[in-house]
Design a protein that fits this description.
Layout lengths: L2 H13 L5 H5 L44 H25 L5 H4 L6
């Protein structure tokens, strides 16, 4: 083998992707040895494998999720309160008698 071939081979070994031959001959990881019976620590329990909620066979219940943001509900309440105030002001100015359902106070006694 010439010097040029040796240099090219060295450069290829540094920058080329691996062939995987070392990985193929590697032994699988061995399990940790069991602790001695007189050990104060209990044996380690392996963690369960991670499961994605998208892979579950049970369909997700869409009714259980909130579809409206809280700030939208708060804005609707403020808008309804503003309408009631305007109705009361107009009723007071023009002497109009308002029913309870117009003001939205039907549940009040």
């Amino acid at each position: 083998m010439s010097i040029i071939h040796a240099m090219v081979r060295c450069i290829l070994d540094l920058f080329a992707p691996g062939t995987g031959t070392r990985r193929a001959s590697a032994h699988p990881a061995q399990k940790a040895p069991a602790p001695a019976p007189d050990s104060p620590h209990p044996p380690a329990v392996p963690l369960p494998t991670h499961r994605s909620p998208y892979g579950l066979p049970v369909a997700l219940d869409g009714r259980a999720a909130t579809l409206v943001r809280p700030y939208v509900v708060a804005a609707e309440r403020e808008h309804a309160q503003l309408r009631r105030r305007i109705a009361l002001v107009l009723a007071a100015d023009f002497g109009i008698d308002l029913d309870r359902h117009v003001l939205g106070a039907g549940g009040m006694t």
